[in-house]
């Protein structure tokens, strides 16, 4: 299947965005040979800065296979932003859908048309204290197993040094390097022809996240934690600590009240 024409809106966005990106970030981009020359596929990318979608899109644009990002459907209805989102072929996610797979129907259709669909499987900026990928959500795995398209794991590092996670103040000097490493397709064949259960999707997602993490280990020259940061597990642990603390404070309050009553009775 031939590549989709990049089109006016994407070229317009590139004219606006590429000059500041080139000025602010040096580039160390590897693995472009792993980006399919034709046909639909998914890229699964780690997320560690509010500006890394632009930095990653710059890399992907230069491969000739522009990414179609998933975004809230409401953004497609608002004036210039909506026109740009529609014009660049970004993909609306209908979060109001009660069917998890139909929420990604546009992504499935895009892959089947031969597009590149970019997923941030973590769903948000990583909360890992050292910037490693967290546990992932199952959207990329759902689309991949439904379409059987290649899933290219992509790790990036450097945009987070320019604009750290959850920060609004960039660190412009010294000039940072945006490092990207695109790996070979994740082997998901063992998940084909099986019932798409939550357990299966979780296992496939873990395979995708492990591939991204391996790419990031190579970029950083470090070993990632054996167990990825899990926001859900951390929330449960935090609630447990809060309950324990509240229980301790309640016991202490009861002890103080008992001591006061004993003192008054003397």
Automatic annotation (TrEMBL):
Keyword field: Acyltransferase, Transferase
UniProt-listed InterPro entries: Plipid/glycerol_acylTrfase
Recorded superkingdom: Bacteria
Phospholipid/glycerol acyltransferase domain residues: 41-159
Single annotated GO MF: acyltransferase activity
Stretch list, region Disordered: 219-266
Record keyword RNA-binding present: no
Biased composition (Basic and acidic residues): 219-239, 250-266
PANTHER family noted in UniProt: 1-ACYL-SN-GLYCEROL-3-PHOSPHATE ACYLTRANSFERASE (PTHR10434), POSSIBLE ACYLTRANSFERASE (PTHR10434:SF55)
Entry protein name: Lysophospholipid acyltransferase family protein
Provenance organism: Streptomyces thermocarboxydovorans
């Amino acid at each position: 299947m031939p590549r989709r024409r990049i089109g006016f809106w994407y070229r317009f966005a590139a004219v606006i965005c590429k000059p500041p990106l080139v000025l602010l970030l040096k580039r160390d981009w590897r693995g472009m040979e792993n980006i399919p020359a034709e046909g639909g596929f998914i890229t699964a990318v780690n997320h560690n800065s509010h500006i890394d979608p632009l930095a990653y899109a710059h890399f992907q644009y230069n491969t000739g296979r522009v990414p179609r990002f998933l975004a809230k459907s409401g953004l497609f209805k608002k004036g210039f932003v909506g026109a740009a989102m529609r014009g660049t072929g970004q993909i609306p996610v209908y979060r109001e859908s009660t069917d998890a797979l139909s929420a990604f129907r546009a992504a499935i259709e895009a892959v089947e048309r031969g597009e590149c669909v970019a997923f941030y499987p973590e769903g948000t900026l990583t909360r890992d204290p050292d910037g490693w990928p967290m546990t992932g959500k199952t959207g990329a795995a759902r689309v991949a197993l439904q379409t059987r398209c290649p899933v290219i794991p992509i790790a990036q590092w450097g945009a987070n040094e320019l604009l750290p996670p959850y920060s609004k103040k960039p660190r412009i000097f010294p000039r940072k390097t945006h490092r990207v490493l695109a790996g070979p397709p994740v082997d998901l064949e063992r998940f084909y022809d099986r019932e798409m259960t939550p357990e299966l999707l979780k296992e496939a997602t873990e395979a995708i996240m492990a591939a991204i993490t391996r790419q990031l280990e190579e970029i950083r020259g470090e070993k990632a934690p054996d167990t990825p940061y899990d926001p859900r597990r951390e929330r449960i642990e935090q609630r447990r600590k809060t309950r324990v603390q509240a229980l301790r404070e309640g016991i202490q309050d009861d002890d103080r009240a008992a001591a006061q009553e004993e003192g008054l009775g003397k």
